[in-house]
Queue: 3 jobs
Job 1
Amino acid sequence: MSKVLYIKANIKAEGESRSFKVADAFIEEYKKNNPNDEIVTLDLYKENIDFLRPEDLGKLFGPKDENSKNNPILKYAYEFAEADKYVIAAPMWNLSIPAILKAYIDYVSVSGITFKYTAEGPVGLLNGKKAVHIVARGGEYGDAPYEMGDKYLRTILAFFGIQDIDTIAIENLDIMGADVEGKVKEGIEKATNAAKRF
Ligand SMILES: Cc1cc2nc3c(=O)[nH]c(=O)nc-3n(C[C@H](O)[C@H](O)[C@H](O)COP(=O)(O)O)c2cc1C
């Protein structure tokens, strides 16, 4: 049985986010194919995610004990490390990911939990796990150099040891006259197919 962490990062009301429509379809199809797997949904705007404060650094970098799992910040890193698969749903914001998702990654990037330092440099601790990034964008980027959200996620996930990463992007949603419904439908089809193999 696998544990899937469904990480959602969007301020829009339920039912309005195009990223979430595609990601929810992914999750639904995944559930159908893997009824015994556990899906944990983490809606970042409903969590106490904040920018790191000076007093948080000691927790992140200091020694850990049995109580660390209950720490309001460290609990996210432990939860992340315990998952087997990650579904990350977020719109493109200013060429990248929403700040709350970056703030969450700052909680999750903890030495000894998601990666460790060695004499040869840092090494990821989450090898063999897989992730999918589901993103809606107003314009068209593909893998253009100024697209920095998917690239960042792929890089930080690889830093944690996660190499198997898929991206499902729906683009050009804010272009005048765009067939938004059609594009979302196309995204849902792609997501449904990808979920069967995830
Ligand atoms: C704060 C903010 C910043 C955005 N920045 C970009 C951007 O840099 N490039 C882009 O193509 N679209 C940008 N958009 C548009 C969204 O990516 C687009 O509308 C997307 O479909 C939103 O997905 P959602 O429906 O899941 O929220 C931005 C939207 C917001 C609200």
Note: Residues 10, 12, 17-20, 91-95, 136-139, 173-174 surround flavin mononucleotide (CB under 6 Å).
Job 2
Amino acid sequence: MTSASPQLFRMLLGPPFPQLIVLAILLGLIAFSDALNNGVGRTPAMGWNPYNAYLCTTTEAQYRAAAQSLIDLGLKGLGYQYVNLDCGWQGKTRASNGTFTWDAAQIPSGVPALASYVHSLGFKFGMYSDGGVFACDFVGGTAHYLGSLGHEADDAKTFASWGADYLKVQFCPTFYVPGL
Ligand SMILES: *[C@@H]1O[C@H](CO)[C@@H](O)[C@H](O)[C@H]1NC(C)=O
């Protein structure tokens, strides 16, 4: 088989410019392998999200404990790098200047302090918002956690300034708008 291959190639490619065609194929393969070796998406985003354990009731203490558990269980060493917030961290009204707020009962130290703690353990910090006026909740849309509708760019900047490395955006959209 191996000795037949050159003849097969000559037959398939033929004159007049087989070398050019082979070169083009090789360049194409190099470009293709570059695209696959850019480091993006080699694993899913690996980390901890509280929803399955706590729905929308996760406390700051539970977030901190979970981050420590990722280390204690050896998961950090296996590539679990995110500690993410999920629903219930948000405030219910914006600050008077329109800035997003957190619920001080759920996150007493505040989101920036929690983000710093997560970073200090060597993890990335993920946040959560929603594309609606209000976010998803577990009480039929009546919790009225803040969503980001109409504030997307400002909220993204706010979350980044608080230390977010990742943002999960859910869509519990217009049917949570009062009156619709
Ligand atoms: C808006 O107000 C909050 C406090 O209520 C403050 O932390 C924040 O820096 C203000 N943002 C701007 C853009 O002035």
Note: The pocket of 2-acetamido-2-deoxy-beta-D-glucopyranose is lined by residues 95, 97, 99 (CB under 6 Å).
Job 3
Amino acid sequence: MDSTTIFCLLFSSVLFLSLFKSLASGRRKLPLPPGSLGWPYIGETFELYSQNPNVFFASKVRKFGSIFKTHILGCRCVMISSPEAVKQVLVTRAHLFKPTFPASKERILGKQAFFFHQGEYHAKLRRLVLRAFMPESIKNIVSDIESVAVESLKSWEGQLINTFQEMQKYTFNVALFSIFGKDEVLHREDLKRCYYILEKGYNSMPINLPGTRFHKSMKARKELARILADILSIRRQTKHNQPDLLGSFMGDKEGLTDEQVADNIIGLIFAARDTTASVLTWIVKYLAENPSVLQAVTEEQEAIRRDNCGEDKVLTWADTKKMPVTSRVIQETLRVASILSFTFREAVEDVEFEGYLIPKGWKVLPLFRNIHHSPDHFSWPEKFDPSRFEVAPKPNTFLPFGNGTHSCPGNELAKLEILIFIHHMTTKYRWVKSHYRWSVVGPQNGIQYGPFALPHNGLPIRLSLKR
Ligand code: HEM
Ligand SMILES: *[C@@H]1O[C@H](CO)[C@@H](O)[C@H](O)[C@H]1NC(C)=O
């Protein structure tokens, strides 16, 4: 080999190497999505929280389109609001986007709660949860849920109540029933007391020093775990195969530790209670504000009550399938109120996404509320009009329960407990919003944000028996 050949070889291999390198790094040359990151560290947090967050998102979408970057609470993130992009993040490329929560939430709910996870552990626990909450299972607790609804409404008669707070009690009781069946009555008050302390720490700084909120929550968490361990050991002794969630977790083959069971039960109460309670609160408000809708719902429910000879506690699963008008009211409420305005994911690697780069570690936020309020998908989006759901919405334009691997396994139970509640509320009671409390120093549009959108002051109402 002469020196020219060597030179040529060297030269071509250098050329080849550099070509290869630029090919391999081609990905990194993709641009970031459009948008602004704002000030260092604080980013655009102030802009977001100084106004109605929907106005913030909507103005960004107008300026930059359906994919844009921003910077809130110390995180760089990409917000997405087209059905196609949301489908990719939640469904078709879900493995590239893992769920992500603030540290305080993870520690208070318990690190082993399945919705913090991806992969095998998530899939296994999710299967157990779905088994307990699928129609075949919850069919059996219709009359138990009905008793809880009837008792709740009775306790409101003639009172000025905070709708949201009362709905929280209802949805807590239903959640406890679906988890523990009849077993839990003994422990109900203890579980509630601990849970109320625990939840105060959800959004606190995760500093575990005596005196801090976080510390109190962690202590309540330990006590909750102890109560749950007691319930587990009692069940093991009696060895009954119960059809509730605890029974599903305790199946012989599952081999879950007590800690895993506790983390997942606390996590489930968290996912089930306030979500459903805030949807119920919005329904009460929309029914009060739309007399013709209330009329139609009441007529539908009265027809069912007549068929049941006006008796309490006789609703069946089949009855709840004969409530199309009421079901559309629930759907429209889920759309307009969009109580979960968005959710969080995190890119597990550098991801090429619709011609842009989403760098590893960046958060990705599907903006459900923007999709639900876009005139592209729902005409006159601000109008409350349940009849729009006479036609099924297009795929991935209506995602109150999310979609894909992490979509809501409790959605059937949520709809069931809402239907049962509305049945009794509309057939037996009338209610008025309490304008006196309602109008005191509130935000202009009467909506409170964080964690869920809620009517101002939890919607004080006065309820009275009809006739
Ligand atoms: C109307 C009330 C409810 C609404 C609007 C709602 C909404 C949602 C949404 C949007 C998600 C997906 C979040 C994401 O992808 O990041 C979700 C997940 C979840 N929901 Fe619900 N939910 C409701 C009631 C319930 C109930 C009653 C339960 C329990 C029985 C429940 C248990 C869960 C769980 C465990 C997850 C996590 C699933 C996973 O990561 O695989 N939810 N919910
Ligand atoms: C979830 O995504 C799948 C796949 O794109 C789609 O077929 C389905 O309709 C979506 N679900 C909803 C509720 O839009």
Note: The first strand starts at residue 67 and ends at 72.
